[in-house]
């Protein structure tokens, strides 16, 4: 009996041992890959950065992947004790498409915080990128926790159906929610990667990596009807993944701020719709000289025949706007988005799920929808805040960043500012750090996007930017491959030659934010902002410059001046006193200090 048990144990153990040995052998042979969320920076082992190959984490070995990655952001491996660390997660809107890092919610939030809190050290680390959805957030959460964030900001949902691993996606969909989760659990095993390599056939790489056609390539199940099985699978997928992600953060007592989702309701007609046979189409109906009420009567008949027609609902909403019935119009336009069978925009059910998720004490709703409606014409979100179907204009991105900033203050992650947030919003809008080159590149990317499926069928050629101005030339150079860093240096020189001190300061500040060990950029930003009379921003960058050279007389004097001009005499006196400890013979510092003390 004992021998039989031993034989059974050996019989069970041998296959397991063989698998373990095979796994070890594959690792020793350097087969396969691991794609962590963060990797070591190329200039210092003390810094980390989001992995530029992160998207490969969600694809099988050897698969063709979309050409997307998170923005490069360097941060210290060991979190400094006085630093507030915030991580931003989500898809292309969270990543700031088409403006990039410094026009994204993370970039705009960073710049606002610099102006409002020049005395704080705050990191906003973006791990957002195009094409990903709640599966990616679920999978990355543990590694986000490992870098000890003080808060996590989430904006996700629009990629749920057609994004990577989405229920209707051509990218990395494994067949069901269960098999997708199994893939995420096994993907790091080299034996699993080997099996994938042997089993999976190569995918056609034609155009998949082309940024212009990524959106077109994403749609596998191009039509997902409202209330269909696959529609409900997407809702279940989103609810389950979001709940898991939020639970991971809540278990570590990390507060999460999740924004509800906005999209273009007024000015983006549905991409795909099943219509009644007699429906003439949106434009023919709207242009028809028939009385509006007669058109609405016809629409009711069409809706009776085909209740989930996106085009009929959109036409109804457009007509109700003409009639001045804006609340009824909003209902119809939201239905049009829900019924749109090409699901590049999240259905309204997702905002319901997001609202329900905030019942947890560590999860806070950021009501972006209300902020957009407050600024949108007649409370209906359209092209005044949206570039196309779901990516905001720069003003729209500012509204998103401002919404998160207000929530961070309300929940105590950031201290209450010395003046009301709403009063400082116009000032902060003026500080948006995008250059004319950045804006032209963004405009071109939108033209590219909307010249292809599903906006244009067949796709339309996109002309080059031309050379109308030096900025157009520089934007075309960027599109042709010139690096952002090299171009910023050229812009900095150009603005200084033109004596555009504020613009020069913004460029220097961007260079420092991109390269946080660049002490020359920090000092240049401080001095240029001081010259531009942007004293709070001068305060922040002078303080950063002083960390590289704590005994610098010129930087300390600039810092004291910025603090004084920002109406913080106490901080200015403290800076001058510290300067005099290192340089007791500095008569200018002593004179300033005496004057400040005399005015107390």
TrEMBL record:
<dbReference type="InterPro" id="IPR011990">
    <property type="entry name" value="TPR-like_helical_dom_sf"/>
</dbReference>
<dbReference type="GO" id="GO:0016788">
    <property type="term" value="F:hydrolase activity, acting on ester bonds"/>
</dbReference>
<dbReference type="InterPro" id="IPR036514">
    <property type="entry name" value="SGNH_hydro_sf"/>
</dbReference>
<protein>
    <recommendedName>
        <fullName>SGNH hydrolase-type esterase domain-containing protein</fullName>
    </recommendedName>
</protein>
